[in-house]
Amino acid sequence: MKALLSILLVSAVIFIGIAMAQEWQVFASAWFGYRPEVPPISETDQKESAESLRHYLTLTGHLYRSNGDTRFLERLPAAPRVTDELMADIVYLRHNGRYQEPSLERLECDEFRLLAPESIEIVTREFWIIRTRSLVDGKETDPVLSGIIRARYRMAKEASGWKVQAWELVSPPLGSVEEPRP
Prior knowledge:
The structure is a single chain. The protein starts with a helix and ends in an 11-residue tail after the last strand. With 182 residues, it is an alpha+beta fold. Helices cover 41% and strands 33% of the residues. Strand 1 (98-116) and strand 2 (119-134) form a beta hairpin. The protein contains 5 helices and 4 strands, in the order H-H-H-H-H-E-E-E-E. Strands 1-2-3-4 form a 4-stranded antiparallel β-sheet, covered by helices on one side. The protein has helices at residues 2-22, 24-32, 43-65, 70-75, 80-95; strands at residues 98-116, 119-134, 145-158, 161-171. The longest helix has 23 residues, at 43-65.
């Protein structure tokens, strides 16, 4: 019985040692406060991802104005789940007899964060004007929305370039007023 306990104890110590060696960064950060240095995002990647994001937002505006024309949908640099979300919103508007005309007036990419070697996060300030119109006669159905919103986009570099994988609004919602920067 004593020999069995010794074998089990030695096996457990070896197993824990191997697990710690394989997952050293996890153990080092939890036990010793070790934080690996995050390499900076190259200027090229910043420029290309920002340009891809601007292209995405511009095409999104065309997609909404066209009431979901798939020619714009096919050219969006975005993951299928992102384009599905956009189309669901357009279908909702269409179901309610409306369509939107969003216009991106200005885009500021405030922050770039490296998430993985080919994945980054961009935090933006976007200056929008959005008109909502009737499908029947094209007249405005709602007050014009204009304002500054902050959003966060997760981008991934693929063979065809940077693509939006996910996004979320940070604050404030469109229609509220944020003070412009000097």
